[in-house]
Design a protein that fits this description.
Elements (H helix, E strand, L loop, with lengths): L10 H6 L3 E4 L13 E4 L7 E4 L3 E8 L3 E8 L8 E10 L2 E9 L4 E9 L6 E7 L6 E8 L2 H8 L1 E10 L4 E3 L3 E4 L2 E5 L6 E9 L3 E9 L4 E9 L2 E8 L6 E8 L6 E8 L1
Antiparallel strand pairs: 1-2, 3-4, 4-5, 6-7, 7-10, 8-9, 8-11, 11-12, 11-13, 14-15, 15-18, 16-17, 16-19, 19-20
Length: 263
């Protein structure tokens, strides 16, 4: 709390951003900060936090004012919303966005936004906050991900945390690409499958199976069509143990490494 109020924001926004904004009144927004707000840009990411029983002092250096000190008070009243994580992963042809939070008191809702150029974001989902203390989990499955990613390549997501006083803050951006791959089942007994999806142009993969000592057991080249496909590799003759599947997506290019256990 600064001068009686602390804007709800994620831990990244408060402690990891290059710009700290402290408000002199309630209701100030993080975008288009008005003249009534005091804003300082630290010279570097290093800050000195000194915690006491009921408050904390923050010291950081600025280019024009030297060392600036701010005091956070009423620390015993949890008003800071912590966004513990915001992640995204592919789930079939869809994108699954997940976020975990704690201490939601004073938070109104979450707005999930999407972009194909990492500049112009649009709202795709709103979820009400629990508005209480504790730890919470939220998710949203984007059913339009595959079609968008097939056209633009990357799809970007960010989370907007909106407080009850209409102040808000953004999470870090999550980038997903439709061209992804995974193996299953793990552990494997007879067959290990490599699933590839989001391929926009037909290509060839070279797939190697090696053990932890680097010994090669199989080298195969596969034609990969557009869209999605699954490669089945027999492993029944391999001895039980830990192996790696190395996938070369183009000659001399990216090599993806997957670990699996042979039963």
């Amino acid at each position: 709390m600064v001068n009686g109020h602390l804007l709800g924001a994620s831990a990244t926004d408060i402690f990891g951003d290059t710009r700290l904004v402290f408000s002199t009144n309630k209701g100030v927004k993080w975008s288009g900060v008005p003249a009534s707000a005091l804003a300082y840009i630290p010279c570097n990411a290093s800050m000195d936090f000194r915690f006491f029983e009921d408050h904390a002092d923050i010291y950081f250096a600025t280019a024009d004012l030297g060392v600036v000190k701010y005091q956070l008070t009423n620390l015993l009243t949890p008003q800071l919303v912590f966004l513990n994580s915001f992640t995204g992963r592919l789930q079939g042809r869809n994108a699954l966005l997940e976020w975990r939070t704690q201490n939601e008191e004073g938070l109104l809702h979450y707005e999930l936004e999407r972009s194909t150029n990492n500049k112009d974001f649009s709202l795709i989902n709103t979820q009400q906050a629990t508005n209480s203390n504790g730890r919470f989990y939220y998710n949203h499955e984007d059913l339009d991900f595959y079609d968008l990613a097939a056209k633009s390549g990357n799809v970007y997501y960010r989370l907007k945390l909106v407080s009850q006083d209409n102040s808000f803050a953004y999470s870090d951006t999550v980038k997903l690409n439709a061209r992804d791959m995974y193996i299953y089942p793990v552990p494997a007994a007879d067959v290990i499958n490599l699933h590839v999806q989001g391929v926009t142009e037909a290509t060839k993969f070279r797939v190697l199976l090696v053990d932890v000592a680097g010994r090669q057991y199989s080298i195969q080249q596969y034609n990969i069509p557009t869209g999605q496909t699954t490669i089945n590799m027999p492993v029944s003759r391999l001895a039980g143990g830990v192996y790696f599947m190395l996938v070369e997506t183009k000659p001399g290019g990216e090599v993806r490494k997957f670990k699996f256990v042979k039963l």
